[in-house]
Amino acid sequence: MILLEVGSPLSLADPSEIYRPKAPGFELDKDMSNFRNYDNLQDEARRVKDTYYEMHTKQTHQFAKSQRARYAPGIVGEYSVMEMLDLVAGLVDESDPDTTLPNDIHMYQTAERIREAYPGEPWFALVGLLHDLGKVLALKGEPQWAVVGDIFVTGCQPSPSVVFGKDSFKSNPDSGDERYNTEYGVYAPHCGLESVVTSWGHDEYMYQVLTRNKCKIPAEGLYMVRFHSLYPWHHHNDYQHLTNEKDSTMLPWVQRFSSFDLYSKGEKIPNVPEIKPFYESLVAEYCPGKLLW
User: Fold this and answer.
1) Are 225 and 206 a contacting pair, CB within 8 Å?
2) pLDDT value at residue 138
3) What pLDDT score does 88 carry?
4) What span, in angstroms and rounded, lies between the C-alpha atoms of 116 and 133?
5) How far is CA 154 from CA 65, 74, 191, 255, in A?
6) Could you give the CA distance from residue 274 to residue 76 in angstroms, rounded to a whole number?
């Protein structure tokens, strides 16, 4: 079991932010022309590129499968959701020019935006609060290429819209493996996204946590958590040869969530002490007690 210290400070850069495509327009607390402004980020852009190339080199099909198996028993420890929020409070996304706020504030911002737009769907707001909690993997010592960034389907050839393109996979051993370098790879046509193995990161890990602990999150919310970083699917319509009817049904929900996730980083900072009791009540209803992480 991995023991973590509450409030442990850690700076976490999310390399997906710079090269992530824009979602449909969302009303912000600041001028859209000043959003995602990456001027004068040449040095950081090189670091981001290096991170993605390392990710696309090391995230093999077998690596992703082994990470799923490794974390399946819940080796990080037992924490409540609110305790985990305290743990990730020290995570700051250094690569995001739109916010220098800790990760927990971004999650509260996302949750509050959703709560305002969907007052009749409290579970949706809770998903906004939960979606990035899987980044606790960074506190466990996982490298950034195995925690953050856009995910992709392993076990088959990269999709056309993957960040930095297919050339970034040239050094991935799977690229030369006939089992994995074709359009379908190890998968049957329209097997469904629930049957594929995506690259390992905070999405799949948090999905594991919610399902392992039998949290009462609807299927739509579980899809949001599990696939919110699968941008080639929900922003570029890739993987249509692998998706099934359930994926098509869930897609609008994931896209809806994505707009709140991307564009909740305005200037308005939630009054956390004021709204925290509301979210504590949601956690008590949907994800009560200590969870096995």
Assistant:
1) yes
2) 87
3) 86
4) 21
5) 9, 23, 14, 22
6) 30
Element (H or E) spanning 70, and its range?
helix 61-71
As a whole number, mean pLDDT of residues 36-62 equals: 78
What is d(CA 113, CA 23) in angstroms, rounded to the nearest whole number?
15
What is the predicted pLDDT for the residue at 268?
79
pLDDT at 74: 96
Q: How far apart are CA 222 and CA 236, in angstroms?
A: 21
Report the distance separating Cα 34 and Cα 132, nearest Å: 24
SS3 category, 291: strand
User: Residue 104 is inside which H or E element, if any?
Assistant: helix 103-117
184-228 per-position pLDDT tens digit: 999 999 999 999 999 999 999 999 999 999 999 999 999 999 999
3-state secondary structure 176-239: HCCCCCCCCCCCCCCCCHHHCEECCCHHHHHHHHHHHCCCCCCHHHHHHHHHCCCHHHHCCCCC
With CA atoms as reference, report the closest residue to 253 among 231, 279, 229, 234: 234
Q: Enumerate residues 6+ apart whose C-beta is below 8 A from 227.
A: 151, 193, 198, 203, 233, 234, 254
Q: What is the pLDDT of residue 14?
A: 54
With contact defined as beta carbons under 8 Å apart, do 204 and 193 qualify? no
Both tokens assigned to 16 = 């997906």
Are 35 and 98 a contacting pair, CB within 8 Å? yes
Identify which of 185, 3, 163, 164 has the alpha carbon closest to the alpha carbon of residue 78. 3
Mean pLDDT of the chain: 86
Nearest alpha carbon to residue 108 among 257, 238, 269: 269
